[in-house]
Amino acid sequence: MPRKTAGGATPAPRLALRAPQGVTRVAEPRLLDGDHREGEHYERTSFDGGELAGITLQECLLEGVRLNDTDLRGARFLECALEDTYAPVFRAPRSSWRETSLRSTRWGSAELYDSRFDAVHLDGGKLDYVNLRSSQLTDVLVSDCIIGELDLTGVRATRLALRDCTIGTLTLDGAQLKDADLRTSTFRSIHGLDGLRGATIDEYQLQLLAPFLAESMGLRIEG
C-alpha cells in the first residue's frame, strides 16, 4: 500500500510562501460580492453573514477576522495570509486558493467542496468538519491541526501531506492520491480504504489500520 518514488522518499509539497508585503490596513472594510481587492490588511473585523460570493483577495492579510456564515462561494484567495480566523460555519464551496497560508484557523463546519488548492499551508488549526469533496489539491501541507472529520471523498491530490495532525475520521471514498504523505498523523477511523492507494504511511499507522483492512477483506482474526 505505501508507495515511494524511485529515490526512496515521498515528494513533499512544493511551497515557497511569503507573507504579503506592503499591505494597507483598512479600518472599516466594505467588501461586496465580486470585488477584487489587492494588498489590503483586515484586522479584528467581522464579515459575519456577508455576501462575498466571487470575491478575489490578492496579496491580502487577514488577522483575527470573523467569517461566520459568510457567503464565499467561488471566492479566490491569491498569495494571501489568514491568521486566527474564526467561523463556526465557513462557507466557501468552489473557491480557489493559491500560494496562501492559513494559521491558527478555528472553524467549525468548513464547506470547501469542489474547490482548488495550489501551494497552500494550513497550520495549527482546530476544525470540526472539513468538506473537501471533489476538490483538487496540489502541493498542500496540513500541519499540527486537530480535525474532527476530514472528508476527502472524490478528491484528486498530488503532493498532499498531513503532518503531526490529530484527525477523528478520515473519509477517502473515490479519492485519487499521488505522493500523499500521511505519516506522523493519527486517525481514529478511516472510511474508503481503497482511497489510500498512492499514500505513504508509517509502521505505527499500518498497525492501527490492520483491523480496518481485515474487515474490508472479510478476514476473521482469531488468537
From TrEMBL:
Classification via Gene3D superfamilies: E3 ubiquitin-protein ligase SopA
InterPro entries xrefs: 5peptide_repeat, Pentapeptide-BTB/POZ_domain
UniProt-annotated stretches for the region Disordered: 1-20
Ranges annotated as biased composition (Low complexity): 11-20
Superkingdom of source: Bacteria
Protein name: Pentapeptide repeat-containing protein
Annotated source species: Arthrobacter agilis
